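Hi Prof. W.,

I finally got the Histidinol-phosphate aminotransferase prediction working! I wasn't sure whether to trim anything, so I left the full sequence exactly as given:
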Amino acid sequence: MTTFNRRNWLRSAAALTAGVAVTDFWRPAEAAEVGLPHLAGMAIKARLSSNENPHGPSPKAQKVIAAAIPSSYMYHRESSMKLRKLIAAENGLTEDHVILGAGSGELLVATALCYAMKGGPKSHIVGGDLTYMQLISAAKKVGVDFKGVPLTADLDYNLNAMLSAIDGSTSLVYLCNPNNPTGIPVDSAQLAAFCQTATKQKPVFIDEAYIDYVSDPKTATMTECIRKGQDVIIARTFSKVHGFAGLRVGYLLAKPEIVNTIRNFYAGGGGICATSIQGAVVSYQDADFMKYSLQKTEEAKQYLYALLKSKGYTPIPSSTNFVLFPLKSDGRAFVGEMAKQGVSIKHWDYRGQSYCRVSLGTMEEMRYFGDAFQKIAV
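And this is what came out:
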């Protein structure tokens, strides 16, 4: 466990509350460690490592963003209020249930600090192991432990085991749905039942960054739990289907009292630039672009499925904009060889098996991946 230093812990929390970036929370790992060779200066022709959407932002959003530049000397209060109203109405909630952030990452870190302070240095977060780690990593940096519950043999969350892992020292329960890096969604009925039981003990945080990619997002989301008054916190982002990864817009949904508490641990949406907010307002209402974006992602996914199967690989069915598959060789070596071919991807080692995760890019990028894969795959 990380040595707990109360002074540093409070300083970190205070810094984020004041809207100051806490460097350690945001510093990326070395490129060689996380399999992002483009960060190490390599010439990358197929950037398939960060789950970005190369089809966005939408043309309508781009037009509004460009037009907003002359007025960006002003703070974006009105645009922020408009976006919060749109999000609240779409989810059957009030504006008091919504807070905005510079991407969902800022909000994950703020939540980590909030519940680290609530739980104290001897608390822990319960979550699946394997999962997306930003919230958990931020909590660990201020002395909170991670009680990771292994996934099932099929790489699903073991919800019963996660319930059993919750105890008096638990500060928060974290799930990513669909999960990253597996791409597997949680059964909606099972997750709703889990939330109903778990929130009687501790708050449940659900990262829905990829919820737009599931077959029925309105059924898959757990916003109904919030409407029922349960202590469920939902994070969403514009970085995926909207193509706003570099524009940094995200939001949290939760009961107003939870929202108001988390708001104390970050800049309260003030870190989003005015152009991004105005673009997000338009993109959120651009159903045609979302349909187009999802269609293009599905085309790339089907291409990748066919390619992998043709070489004897078994892709894990994905409800996201990436695909995970088990490798037949060492993951680090495979990523390195693909990087030499100009392809940026990521790998994980889990239970003695190496896995590769490929983000779904343009068809040109996918074919470039295919050419490199044909040369290297065993």
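The chain has 16 helices and twelve strands. Does that look reasonable to you?

Thanks,
D.
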